Amino acid sequence: MPNSLLRVLACGSVDDGKSTLIGRLLFECGTIPDDVMAALERDSRRFGTVRDGVDYALLVDGLEAEREQGVTIDVAYRYFETPRRRFILADAPGHQQYTRNMVTGASTADLAILLVDARKGLLAQTRRHSAIASLLGVRDVVLAVNKMDLVDFDQSVFDAIVSGFHALLDKLGPLSVTAIPVCARDGDNVTSASERVSWFSGPTLLSALESAEPSRPASRQPFRMPVQYVNRPDHTFRGYAGTVSSGTLRPGSRITNAASRVEAKIERIVTMDGDLDAAEQGQPVTLVLDREIDVSRGDVLAEDPSPALADQINAWVVWMDETPLFRGRSYQLMLGSRTVTGTITDITNRLDVDTLNEVGVRELHLNEIGRVAISLSHPVCCEPYETSRALGGFILIDRLSRATVGAGMITEIRAGRTNVHWHQLDVDKRARAGLNGQKPAVLWFTGLSGAGKSTIANLVEKRLLAAGRHTMTLDGDNVRHGLNRDLGFSEADRVENIRRIAEVSRLFVEAGLIVLVSFISPYRAERMLARERVAEGEFLEIFVDTPVDECRRRDPKGLYQKADAGQIRNFTGVDAPYEEPLDPEIHLRTLDAPPEVLAAQIVDALRERGIIV
Amino acid sequence: MTTAPAHLQALEAESIHILREVAAQAARPVMLYSIGKDSSVLLHLARKAFFPAPPPFPLLHIDTTWKFRDMIAFRDATVRRFGLELRRHTNPDGLAQGINPFDHGSVYTQVMKTDALKQALTAGDYDFAIGGARRDEERSRAKERIFSVRGPGHTWEPKRQRPELWHLYNGTLAPGETLRVFPLSNWTELDVWTYILAENIDVVPLYFAAERPTVIRDGLIIVVDDDRMRFQPGEKPVGRMVRFRSLGCYPLSAAVESDAASVEDIVHEMRTTRVSERAGRLIDQDQGASMEKKKREGYF
User: Fold this and answer.
1) Domain ranges of chain A
2) CATH number of A429-608: 3.20.20.70, 3.10.450.710, 3.40.50.300, 1.10.10.10?
3) pTM
4) A391 touches chain B (CB under 8 A)
5) Is B1 in contact with A273 (Cβ distance < 8 A)?
6) Using 50, 70 and 90 to split pLDDT, how confident is the model at B293?
């Protein structure tokens, strides 16, 4: 019976014969039942690319669409076992979308198989795959040089590829490499030693997989466990459930809640099979402490030295979404069992995975990998990815679509809240606003160009002023002449523009003012970003709803005319989208009433909400 | 701690981690309970994950009314034994129309299983539904996520599926979305049986070989479970030593000839067997991609 589990990532493209290699491996390990084999022989005649034979590649093709196209589009997981080991093999395609698929497969892998076509040698693709595996912390590599039959099993071809790969290691960092000449189609050196490469004395692919002993640094490190779930069936039991991410733990061990630095001792390690004398890395446990301390999901229980508590991190981020990543954008960031808001404060470099050099950039596109600085809404216990995959790897979640759009690996932990204290001011916004007889608020007017945002905002401000209220107006156009004059209209600059306006609004709110912002702000994500800068109830989204035909008819600045003539690009409502607010605090339909009436409606709403009395 | 082999301990740990993520992230989770061996393992893992508390979610059984009698008896005994909350659902429209596996074939599966499941999930307003599907069951499942997102109407679309990295499971949902969660994704059929052996988990007796009344149709062995069985002209039940590898509704699940009368025997048989698990499920054989089609429609 197998005595361990190994997670393997297979990298390479269909052309390198990767599917054939995997299919062959599964077949020779006895994983393929007779009825599936019969189906395979039938399919080989219909779809197969191997003349007069079984196309093993068809064993590992999954979805209908890709089988017809002959291209793999996502990570597929395969399972097989030998008397020595059980394997989970992540099969990541080499062509399309390769980065995000490979990163996904590599994130849990102990070892990577890099497939090279002997005729083609090392390609840019091999460098890419090696770079990604290395970045994700996969340190053990099997270099499988395939299609040796097509180079007459020539040792010099193999040797040249192997020495070329070793030359790459300078840039990749330390990898443990086993190189093997194979012919997947015929099975040479897959599970049994090939007689056609008598010059080769190394292991077959399968025996290399069986005997690999990947280093698992986490077992030697101090104890850490992110708390997943507080188990509290009744008042007699309170246990903290989670998976030990590093180290070893015993009853009596002294631990702290790394966030609060409050200490306790482990009283029991509870499982359904009885209490344990020790728990180690990878084990799911429920811990009972000797005293009541405040612990909830997302906290990390740790032994000294405790992990850092950070609210600023630097990381490699792999971008997985069609919409590029810009500075200023905010996402949900999930790390360990904690989810916080992460705001991109900087993007500096992109890793060119073909050359392994870094290039200066300001945005990241789909499948690009870059160095990114992130500011966190709450301090998070974390460690560099090199030290801990569990506390150093995170995902970014889009707050509207809820999709996973990025993956990150922490490289540096910066300025935790423990070092930089937020200046606690005795005079706060409530005091300042109270002086004015009002509550501070942001009135965020959004709508198409020409919708009437500024007109209505001006009327509102006049009324507030007349009532003795203290206000401030920020107009999108005017701000561009001063504070934001260094910004253009690229996607990245637009995001930065809105970030600054949101920050300035927040400062004015701190000053106790009612801030009126007129700003097209076409994207929901941007408006959400501004909303999150201030407290709950302080942000009023006002949708100035005017149909685009009416705006074009009004065209107060002649902009629609220019946009229609192609003189202005990315003009909202013409060739760029406007995402209507889904649930605005105030919805004004300008065709239904004149601006004066609409302004009065807003003032009434402010009174109802207690912002003014 | 379990005495299971190391690779099963690793799989167990992963599954328990996933189940705890569901409990922590879901608002209204439910566990699909189909009574089979995978459900037995899933339930065992859920009991382990939350010990000493019971699993913090109810079980949901989609009752087609055509389950083997032994399955229903086992279900009720299990629920009693562990003090679980069981919710049952049968598609009332299908019942009223008399939809049955003899007359209606694949329509029966659609109405009494797929539609019934969707009805129950919608009625219960469940956001996370835990199921026992494994990636090794069928090749179109090899790419299924552990947290599999379903759009409005419980539809599965490749584009909605999220990359899954490390052991971070994104369970946040956009309006109209729900999740199916598969904690046994990385298990194989052999793992399931080896684990049942190591952990001494009870399973429905139909998995063990016994002499049962059978008929042979289209090369498949059909067990006669009750008097609702319809015989074709000339058919007579014959006693054969058979067992099931996969359990569904009785006229649609084929048995295999076997002498494996204990879990040890089954593990031994598994290590030497050369036929795939779902070969006995009549609904899966139309064409290679038929499972994918069913999945898009909302089948588990």
Assistant:
1) 5-215, 218-302, 308-414, 429-608
2) 3.40.50.300
3) 0.79
4) no
5) yes
6) low
